[in-house]
Structure formats: C-alpha cells, structure tokens
Design brief:
alpha/beta, Rossmann fold, Hypothetical Protein Tm841, Chain: A,domain 3, four-stranded parallel beta sheet, 13 strands, about 40% helix, DegV
C-alpha cells in the first residue's frame, strides 16, 4: 500500500456524473463561464441549459476562462494539507492554459513544503479526460503509488478513442476551436460532422447525412462495429441534452455492438457544451494496449 493517502482531483471539463464525484470523493476545479459581464463557475452556479438559453437569446457564445495559478494554489493547498499526494487531471493543453497554471502551482507548492502533486495533461476533454480520472482512482484504490499512477495515466491517455457527432456546427464555428468546420458551407448544413480528438486537438472526421437519429446510429456503428482493438472495461455515452429516449437507444446499440463491462451515461458540462452545442453525443473508450 502507498505510504500516504492519494487524492484524485480534476478540472470540471471531465464531465463525470455528480454522483461519481461524490462517491469517489473527487474534488473538482471549476472553469469559469462568462455570460456578458457575469462570471459563473462550471458545475457550481450555472447549468448547461442556461448556456444554451444565453446563446439562443444573444447569438454569441459565452466565454470560458481557465483556472489561474492562484486558483490552483488554493485548490492544491486544501487537498495536500493532510500530507496527501494529489493526481490532478487537466483539460488538454491545446484547449486551455489550465494545465500550465496547474503545473506552476504544483511546482511552487513542492518547493515550498514538499507537496507531491502530479498535474497531468489529459490531451483530451469531456469524459475522455473522465476516463483518466476513473483509471487513476482505480489504481490508487489498488495500492499503486502516486508516481506509478501518473506514469500509468500518461500511458493510457494515448489509447483514448474520443469522438462525438454534432447536431449543429454553429457553436464550433463561433468558437473557432475546430478549424476544420469552416469547410462546411451553407449548402452542406444537412451534413452532421463527427468530431474526433487527436493529438490533443479537435479534428473533423466522417460526415453523416440524414436525420439526427440516423446520423447518431450510423456514427455509433462506425466507431464500434466489428472492432477487436477496444478495451471493453468501460465506455462513456456522453451527450449535451439529447432526449432520454434517444440516449437509451444509443446505450442499447452500444451493448449490441460490443460487450462492455460498464456503459456509463454522462451529461456534458457547461464548458464543453458552450463549444459543442445542444444535442451532441459521443462514445468514448480506451483502445487495448
């Protein structure tokens, strides 16, 4: 067993269900969501539906703000004060300065009092990063040391298979986080793009035609059907308020296509939803070693 306690913490973009954070005692660093002059905090005092309502009324996206070095200093101090080591999972450094700030804070605290903090660049977002949080928790529960956990998570992040399909391009076009979407002109609005996370960045994958439901089913089949390289321990079905009935159909399709041990459904938080928009859904899993 490790000599001292290990705490797993993460940025709010990991999009795990709230009950998971509570059950596993995973503290969360919220990203800021700016609605005009009003600063809110992801998962604290704003809902995803409020983000969509703001965009509908104002025609512009809210801004997301990264946690600062001082934010991480305060956060890490709180969770290392009892001598615990911390493994912190950050949003991809390609999307945010959170990881850079977390590393600076971790180094400052280590120099000051020897605090053991491992800030990990997930190279991912949403429940892709959430997968790494759960992996770190499972490894800590199994008695692995903090340095070993950090090494294992840094290896595993390269095996994540993360993608989603969008109902609307407008959020990504306005946000500019995925340059490839600018290639979609007005005459292609009936095409629904698959967005993949590769090398820490969002890229456009396949393009689906037809109703949103048909596009989603085609997308899920395309990601899962006939594959033998998938780690079947766990898969996330993560969405931004897709109707419950359709989510249930997606879960059943996932189970038909691959015998996952665990299928977890999660709702995208404000930070992710403010870039991807409503009715976005993805399947996220690990590939085998």
């Amino acid at each position: 067993m490790p000599e001292h306690k290990i705490k797993i913490t993460c940025d709010s973009i990991c999009d795990l269900p709230q009950e998971v954070y509570r059950e596993y005692d995973i503290p969360v660093m919220p990203l800021g969501i700016v609605l005009g002059d009003d600063l809110r905090f992801d998962g604290v005092n704003i809902s995803t539906l409020e983000v969509f309502d703001y965009v509908d009324k104002n025609g512009v996206l809210p801004k997301t703000t990264a946690a600062s070095v001082s934010d991480y200093l305060e956060f890490f101090k709180k969770h290392t004060s009892d001598g615990s080591a911390v493994i912190h999972i950050n949003i991809s450094s390609e999307f945010s300065s959170c990881h850079s700030s977390a590393c600076i804070a971790a180094e400052q605290l280590h120099e000051k009092d020897g605090s053991e903090i491992y800030a990990i660049d997930s190279r991912n977002l949403s429940s892709g990063a959430g997968h790494l949080v759960l992996l770190a928790h499972e490894l800590a529960a199994g008695g692995m040391s903090a340095p070993e956990i950090a090494d294992a998570v840094n290896e595993a992040k390269n095996r994540l298979d993360v993608s989603f399909v969008l109902q609307t391009l407008s959020y990504l076009q306005k946000g500019g986080r995925c340059p490839g979407v600018v290639a979609f002109g007005a005459n292609l609005l009936k095409l629904r793009p698959e967005i993949e996370v590769k090398d820490g960045k969002m890229t456009v994958g396949k393009k689906y035609r037809g109703s949103m439901e048909k596009s989603i089913f085609d997308y899920v089949r395309g990601r899962l059907e006939g594959r033998t390289d998938i780690d079947l321990h766990r898969i996330f079905v993560t969405h931004s308020y897709v109707p419950d009935e359709l989510v249930s159909k997606v879960v059943e399709l996932v189970k038909e296509l691959q015998p996952f041990e665990q299928v977890m459904v999660s709702t995208a938080g404000c930070a992710i939803s403010s870039h991807c928009g409503p009715n976005c859904i993805g399947v996220l899993f690990f590939r085998k070693k």
